[in-house]
């Protein structure tokens, strides 16, 4: 159905592929020999996505969070995708505002700046002042974008259905990835969801034992005016993070010290989100990190967030330590714990791949190691071994990569491991003792007491079952079904061979001693049956291909 509904769009997509010179499409359409389709080069793929429009730019941004699917070159190229587009004229934005507001525009705002401060593929942002004098930011959805997205989503789902029939599509569950993308895109059209994410992040960051909560800011949402197509929030006066001029800031006495304080604050804020709260801002690129005029730091745009459950948080914390220790065996074990794939994995090969990957860092100083790059390489080793990891691992890796990249650019003197070492230590202490050490110790004492009371009785029951020969062992070993079938086939054929040999021997004995017609007939019949069974045995052996 989608093929007939989106023919003009298909033609446009084909033209974009040809214009960007994807050789596979050219060979296919010119009648040349087309090999197996390969992805365009990273630069060409980026150009194709930009030319296809905002939906495909969003798709590229999502794929940049999946190092378990793409290699480092693609991840790096797609991570630079930005959905900056020409702004929509104010006259069209004003129509949307009037539809979404309960009161007339003049009764809601005293002023609205018709010139946008930012324009993206989904929405654009204007500065305004409420009737009560508060400064706010208005994020207004672009007119008609919901219809455009619905058409492109239908096309992407149709393409995913076709690709899912290939081995590549089945291995990487392309349909699931397409479904994940379409759900994320549809969620971006509902600004009340982003408003809810913003509120949750502000609540989470309002308390911490690692940093001063007054130094981090998340905008407050004006829920009275916010709708699915209009997001109204507190205006934060500042500049993008990397544009901050600390040397000329009158509030800053020591710019170098201030840079260190800010990078320390950022690491602690994001480590709390990742490893304690389990709810994190998943797009900390320079445009979403603001340095405010009062020297505080603000997080903007909570449209993309990630979640980590407690079990995953614990595994990832242990993975941090395994990477620092360059422990390939532990990395392999933790990767398998993260995996949500049922496919068998050769553990020795996985360990060898991690060993080769980590060996590069044996003689490298910790201050020179790009930690986020190692995280990407860990996920790519999993991809090469066809281990499918949860999609939130891509968001996790992208968040760490963006964070480390921004921090290193802002503060070239950054020592990543000095920043995270006390945090990792505290995380392990929390895992061992919890937030309330006394309660954890009491719980452990009760468990030990319960074990000490139950153990003698359990040992007595075990010994009773052993001595009475009623103990049964249930073992489940993978991969034995094929061996069992082979042994069964071999046993059956051996039985048939013995039977045929017995019939032939019996017929020979009767034939040598036959003195009546009846015995001669019996002898002939036995020879015939033996010949048929022997012929059947030979044919079945040849057809099985196991003659050798």
Automatic annotation (TrEMBL):
The keyword Chloroplast belongs to this UniProt entry's keyword annotation: no
Domain ABC1 atypical kinase-like positions: 81-334
Keyword entries, A-Z: Kinase, Membrane, Transferase, Transmembrane, Transmembrane helix
Pfam family, one: ABC1
InterPro entries according to UniProt: ABC1_dom (IPR004147), Kinase-like_dom_sf (IPR011009), UbiB_kinase (IPR050154)
Transmembrane segment boundaries: 494-514, 520-539
Keyword hit for Transmembrane: yes
Molecular function terms from GO: kinase activity
Family of the protein in this entry: Belongs to the protein kinase superfamily. ADCK protein kinase family.
Entry protein name: AarF/ABC1/UbiB kinase family protein
Taxonomic path: Bacteria, Bacillati, Cyanobacteriota, Cyanophyceae, Nostocales
């Amino acid at each position: 159905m989608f093929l007939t509904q989106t023919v003009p769009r298909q033609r446009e997509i084909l033209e974009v592929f040809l214009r960007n010179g994807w050789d596979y499409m050219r060979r296919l359409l010119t009648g040349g020999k087309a090999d197996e389709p390969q992805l365009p080069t990273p630069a060409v793929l980026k150009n194709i996505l930009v030319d296809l429009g905002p939906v495909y730019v969003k798709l590229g941004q999502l794929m940049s969070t999946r190092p378990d699917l793409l290699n480092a070159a693609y991840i790096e190229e797609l991570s630079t995708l930005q959905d900056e587009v020409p702004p929509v004229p104010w006259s069209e934005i004003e129509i949307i505002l009037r539809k979404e507001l309960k009161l007339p525009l003049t009764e809601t705002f005293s002023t609205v700046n018709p010139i946008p401060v930012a324009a993206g593929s989904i929405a654009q942002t204007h500065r305004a002042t409420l009737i009560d004098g508060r400064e706010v930011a208005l994020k207004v959805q672009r007119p008609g974008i919901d219809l455009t997205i619905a058409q492109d989503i239908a096309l992407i789902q149709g393409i995913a259905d076709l690709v899912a029939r290939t081995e590549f599509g089945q291995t990487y569950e392309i349909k699931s990835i397409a479904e994940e993308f379409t759900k994320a895109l549809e969620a971006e059209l509902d600004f009340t969801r982003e408003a809810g994410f913003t509120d949750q992040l502000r609540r989470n960051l309002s308390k911490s034992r690692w940093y001063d909560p007054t130094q981090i800011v998340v905008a407050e949402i004006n829920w009275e005016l916010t709708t699915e197509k209009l997001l109204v929030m507190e205006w934060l006066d500042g500049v993008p993070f990397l544009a901050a001029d600390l040397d000329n800031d009158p509030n800053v006495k020591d710019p170098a010290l201030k840079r260190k304080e800010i990078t320390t604050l950022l690491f602690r804020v994001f480590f709390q989100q990742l490893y304690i709260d389990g709810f994190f801002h998943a797009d900390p690129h320079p445009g979403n990190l603001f340095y405010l005029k009062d020297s505080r730091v603000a997080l903007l745009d909570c449209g993309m967030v990630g979640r980590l459950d407690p079990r995953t948080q614990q595994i990832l914390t242990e993975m941090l330590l395994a990477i620092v220790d360059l422990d390939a065996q532990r990395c392999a074990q933790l990767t398998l714990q993260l995996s949500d794939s049922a496919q068998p994995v050769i553990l020795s090969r996985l360990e060898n791949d991690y060993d080769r990957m980590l060996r590069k860092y044996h003689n490298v100083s910790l201050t020179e190691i790009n930690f986020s790059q190692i995280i990407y390489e860990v996920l790519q080793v999993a991809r090469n071994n066809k281990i499918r990891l949860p999609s939130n691992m891509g968001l996790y890796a992208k968040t760490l990569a963006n964070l480390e990249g921004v921090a290193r650019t802002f503060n070239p003197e950054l020592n990543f491991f000095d920043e995270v070492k006390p945090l990792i230590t505290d995380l392990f202490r929390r895992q061992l003792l919890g937030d309330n050490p006394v309660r954890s110790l009491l719980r452990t004492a009760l468990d030990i007491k319960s074990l000490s009371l139950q153990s003698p009785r359990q040992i007595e029951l075990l010994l009773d079952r052993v001595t009475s020969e009623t103990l049964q062992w249930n073992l489940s070993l993978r991969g034995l079904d094929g061996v069992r079938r082979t042994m069964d086939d071999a046993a059956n054929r051996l039985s048939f061979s013995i039977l045929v040999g017995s019939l032939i021997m019996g017929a020979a004995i009767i034939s040598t001693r036959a003195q009546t017609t009846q015995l001669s007939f019996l002898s002939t019949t036995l020879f015939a049956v033996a010949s048929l069974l022997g012929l059947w045995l030979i044919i079945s052996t040849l057809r099985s291909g196991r003659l050798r």
